[in-house]
Amino acid sequence: MMLRLDNVTKVYKVGAFGGKTLTAVDRVSFDVPEGQVVSLIGESGSGKSTLGRMILGLVPVTAGSITLDGAPVRPGKEYYRHVQGVFQDPFSTFNPVFKADRVFQLIREAYFPAATAAEWDERVRAALRDVRLDPDQVLGKYPHQLSGGQLQRVLIARALLLDLKLLVADEITSMLDASTRIDVLNLLAEIKGRGLGVLYITHDLSLGNYLAERTVVLRHGTVVEMGATDKVFGRPLHPYTRQLLSAVPRLHDPWEDAEPVTSCLYHDSGAAGGLAEAEEDHFVACARLEGCREERLEGRPGGRPEGVLKGRLEGRLKGRLEGR
Amino acid sequence: MSLRVSDLKVHYRTLRGDVRALDGVSFELGDAEILGLAGESGCGKTTLGKSLIRMDGRMRHVGGTVELDGTELPIGDDRRMNDFRFHEVSLVPQYSMSALNPTRKIGKMVGELLRSRGVTPDTAKLLGRLDAVGLPHEVLDRYPIELSGGMKQRMVMVVSTLLDPSLLIADEVTSALDVSTQKAVAKALAGFRDDGFVKSMIFITHDISLTYQIADTIMVMYAGKLAEKAPARTIVEAPRHPYTRMLIDSLPEVGVRHTDRRLSGIAGSPPSLLDPPAGCRFRDRCPLAFDRCAEEPPAAEVAPGHFVACWKA
Q1: What residues does B219 pair with on adjacent strands?
Q2: CATH of the domain at A89
Q3: pLDDT for A78-109, tens place per residue?
């Protein structure tokens, strides 16, 4: 299984009568391989949820392509057999007038009409045990009788009943308390062992770092840095990633002041927003920062051929890496 | 001593009986001290903050006293509290995003607010405060919709502290903000104390790592009671209450990967406060619980300034 995003772009029409446009996601490319957790990190407005929604087929793609095992996203019963999403607020996901286990019944009606009641009950119980829930405590309860952590796990269990290949988890722990959130994260780490890919969308760098093999950092709809999590967080190269990391409150270390993002080390990089490979499995983009753009315009009015640029950038990145 | 809270009890009235959201909490807050109030949802931290400034209709002051700078606050009496609100005690609410009047330019709104309190607006002071939080003076001529979330939050902070209150209560002020904005707002709050705009502060949040960055003392609450209170460094480096210890152990930090060190949460959930069990309220989730926990542990001072409500501490 492999989910592949290739130059995915989303342009929303905004303003009265859709007169203006807003580019929420701009030429984003990355993969989610099977058996891996990829975390998509960004602040509000970075386009991370829009990406999740496009992968789930809830929002159409403006340009570029999203493919699962080589086949394009075609929202429908067959697609949702393999791709499911879990969202931020478990209390609004459930219909409060029905019992929470109705979500399992709906799966049975849609996908497994041939299963007998006893067979199905056994499968539901097994799925609940897989997400570390006691079936007797959860079945037959209304959503308000369960905690947020329990509800999120019910939704993960529901997804696991299907022949799941990809789970899109959009901020699924941000409404949970610190003491229960870590158990849901551990659960995501466990289920990837079944060979399914998990796209974990979050604004919390420490959670993404804890869980994911690979990390994609988004800013204003473009990827600024991506690669193996230990490389992106261990040797962050992009000033934006550095600034984010320095702003995360940590236990034991007081806040330090980061270098401001106004001057960009990589302003020589291509204006197309391409990514340069700094080391194996670690890609960095030129920040499309305002100050940086001005500097670039002043610095090289004529522009240089792209190949030269790329070579120079890679030289600098290497120097930066070795210097540290 | 700036604030002294003794055995404060505040209950919520519901159809099924009283919810004991705050069930006998005592603590003191020194001059120029920032107290971080941490705990899970439903532990009573917001109730405590609200009790000190304005109780809503469902809340009832059942017992205990609150003393600010030597004067007892009439917290149960909504009308008499008016003399203290904003002059002595002020609040930066969680909902700052919607706290500003959308139909007024900000400068006009601030003027109206001050006059409603019988104070003549002092423009020089207001501009000075804007500089202190890093807002441009032009914001006064803008509508709230033209400001970003972090700017609105900082504007509300300026408005809440214009009358130089003695105590400022900041309730989850950063939970809706991005990490970089969160840092700027938290630092601006700490700056208010350093510059003497407010004498002391209670900083309420569910995020212990954030509290650690700006608070001098951290108080951890559990199910309407105090679990542990100590200097910030002690809470993080050497917690004595099993709840604090487990809570801190469950926090993933940048640099911790699940493949290297697997963290675990706290099994179970807090007890219902409608009819809380006798004895220690953390007993059912506590790995150290023993017979004596059926008796309620008092908040004992195990070291100077370090209070723990646990028999095993």
Answers
A1: B37, B229
A2: 3.40.50.300
A3: 999 999 999 988 888 899 999 998 999 999 99
